[in-house]
Amino acid sequence: MSVRTSSLSALAVLAAIGLPLAALHGLEREPAGAPQAGPGRTDVMANLFEWNWDSVASECTGTLGPAGYAGVQVSQPADSLKRTKLGDGSDTVLHPWWEIYQPVSYELTSRMGTEAQFRSMVTTCRRAGVKVYVDAVVNHMTGQGSTSYGGRTYSHFEYAGLYDASDFHRKGTDCPSSTGGIEDFNNLRQVRTCELVGLADLRTDSPKVRNELAKYLNKLIGYGVSGFRVDAAKHVGQDDLLALQKKLRDTVDGDRPYVALEVFGGGPGILSPQAFTGAGSAVLGLDGDIQIKNAFKSYPADGTGSLAVLKTFGDGLTPSGKTLSFVQNHDTERNGDALTYKDGATNLLAQQFLLAYGYGTPQVYSSFAWSATDASPPSDPGGLITDTDCASEAWVCVHRDKAVTGLVGFHNHVGRAPVTHWWDNGGNLIAFSRGQAGWIALNNDKSPVTRTFDTGLAAGTYCDVTRGSVSKGKCSGPTVTVDARGQVRVTVPAKGAVAFTRADRV
Ligand code: ARE
Ligand code: CA
């Protein structure tokens, strides 16, 4: 964090003359193509996991654009497995959420909608100032089934008009494990050439496979897509990832596509996330979300934690400018690594911390409610995902919560101003400012705390953006007053925050 510079007025001048903010920074440069366009926007992304295309489009216009989100990540859009019977991973759910991770062709006919709906979603989002990032599955095809949402038939190694058996790694010749599956996630050759949970493993080292993948991704870029979350990137490997990216065209904005690589931590050396920072624009912040959970909710698992340790959040993790950070994603909300929407106010507080602190390109995850980990998103009987309804209990729209949108505005305003005026009580109450641009206090305890803090901000009355916003000089929620010494006396609510930027003066 220490390398973050800067004076906000200089940022504003650079932005005004159209220079990328990244020009200001050395180590902390924004990766090429990271969301940052549009007045008042920087880089915050929403991850609308398994929202259908029509719902994403209306969310871009209705919420994401107006709230200052710069980008949206959408789910794997290629045609995929459509199960016809139970078993093989789920004995109770016919259409688990994970069907989409078994691509059958690169036609854009999926559980989320048609190709026409996908295209129109991208256009609508871009018009709303929101860039679109696509979850791309390039490591494999399917591990079960024979029919797809697009109505195709296939078998494990045969995908008519696209791939045949010669395009896949095989047990014995390529993959050294006795089953043909990855049995040891620390074994480099197995990780790259064996099957991940039985999924037919593409020869991503072959020119033919690389060409087909590039054709698919370039089609998406041609539709206005700005970048990708690359699924199972660890299993593709650095060389093949770089070779594939070389074949990608520039985005419609003239940037290189932003490529965020999914690499779980724990792997040694070449298999670690740190070893992939040069193989794309960024890696997913999968170690960071574990640390956030451990700070906000440690054992005994009754909601106690110790936010004071976050003073050096980012230390030991992949560099901020090389990380797509989040509190959870669709895997970690299910595997125990991360906080989830079920943590309620604690989850919202963690989202606020991430947006305020500024580690990585921050992403806010919103998806459907679940009890069984295999559960399908709300769908029709044929598995097609139905429209998102944030008012229904079936969906969880974290990115819409005022506590979160207030901090999206905060994040956009403070830019890369450094963390200063850090204060903590050694436990669950912390406060810090971002240069002279904004200040926040976060309380992860079950009772409110009143005290006086140093903010470093100019004297004045400010609107608390966690509960209100400024319109025509008036605050729709509570206000706080900074005195001539830069001090503020506030009550920080239980499991809540107080935050304002210098743009929130009333
Ligand atoms: C499903 C069934 C299986 C069945 C298979 C094939 O569950 O029983 O064999 O289909 O028919 C998702 C689901 C899987 C699902 C798959 C395909 O999670 O359950 O399988 O879709 O439909 C490793 C990888 C990492 C991967 C995780 C899950 O390195 O890339 O495993 N994450 C991505 C996605 C997943 C997705 C896939 C990849 C596949 O985000 O959602 O799977 O496209 C250590 C290791 C890590 C390892 C991790 C596993 O940390 O170091 O490498 O991650 O353990 O927890
Ligand atoms: Ca592979």
Helix and strand composition category: alpha/beta
Strand content: 15-25%
Instruction: Give the end-to-end Cα distance, rounded to a whole number of Å.
Output: 31 Å
Within the CATH hierarchy, at the fold level, what is the topology of the largest domain?
TIM Barrel
Report low-confidence residues grouped into runs of 5 or more.
1-30
Q: What is the rounded Rg?
A: 23 Å
List how many beta strands DSSP finds.
19
Largest sheet: 8 strands, parallel, barrel
H/E element order: HEHEHEHHEHEEHEHHEEHEEEEEEEEEE
Listed once per kind, the bound small molecules are:
acarbose derived pentasaccharide, calcium ion
Description of the molecule:
The chain is of the alpha/beta class and 506 residues long. The protein has 3 domains: 1-30, no CATH class; 31-168 and 203-414, TIM Barrel, CATH 3.20.20; 419-504, Immunoglobulin-like. 22% of the residues lie in helices and 18% in strands. The strands form 5 sheets. It has an 8-stranded parallel barrel with strand order 1-2-3-4-5-6-7-8, surrounded by 5 helices. Strands 10-11-12-19 form a 4-stranded antiparallel beta sheet, covered by helices on one side. Strands 13-18 form a two-stranded antiparallel ribbon. Helix 7 links the parallel strand 6 (282-284) and strand 7. Helix 9 (345-357) packs parallel to helix 10 (402-414). The model is unreliable at 1-30 (pLDDT under 50). Bound molecules: acarbose derived pentasaccharide (ARE) and calcium ion. Its EC number is 3.2.1.1. Pfam families: Alpha-amylase, Alpha-amylase_C. Residues 1-22 form the signal peptide. Its cofactor is Ca(2+).
